């Protein structure tokens, strides 16, 4: 039981030391630090910053590779669709001609279009 109490006390001390170190790394409670201690903290921060930048660069490279792969797939799909479109110009132009002929024939049958603007309730008009 005594050994467990001693381990618990040691762990509590370690936790307190870690909390103090954390505060110092965050720039808090630096008044009690010696110049050597401040130098060590600065070196630790520079190493941490270097590691962070390296990880950030790695993530950006991976993201660029993923986007380039996606771009290649989209370019291939675009080329496939372009070939498909170029292979069917007669069918499409036939459909376009049918639409144009339908529109022109329907406009001939109804050349008279009423374009008057009325304000108010619609009323029955006799023609």
Describe this structure in words.
- There is one protein chain.
- The protein is built from 3 helices and no strands.
- The radius of gyration is 39 Å and the shape is elongated.
- The chain has a domain at about 5-90.
- It is mostly helical.
- It starts with a helix and ends in an 18-residue tail after the last helix.
- It comes from Populus deltoides.
- GO terms for molecular function: DNA-binding transcription factor activity.
- This is K-box domain-containing protein.
Question: What's the quaternary structure here?
Answer: single chain
The tally of beta strands, per DSSP, is: 0
Distance between the termini: 110 Å
Number of helices: 3
Helical/strand content category: mainly alpha
Overall 3D geometry?
Answer: elongated
GO molecular function: DNA-binding transcription factor activity
Pfam family, one: K-box
InterPro entries: TF_Kbox
Domain K-box: 1-91
In short:
This protein has 127 residues and is mainly alpha-helical. The protein has a domain at 7-88. It is built from three helices and no strands.
Write the layout of secondary structure elements.
Layout: H1 2-25, H2 35-87, H3 89-109
GO molecular function, one term: DNA-binding transcription factor activity
InterPro entries: TF_Kbox (IPR002487)
Protein name: K-box domain-containing protein
Keywords:
mainly alpha, 3 helices, elongated, DNA-binding transcription factor activity, TF_Kbox, K-box domain-containing protein
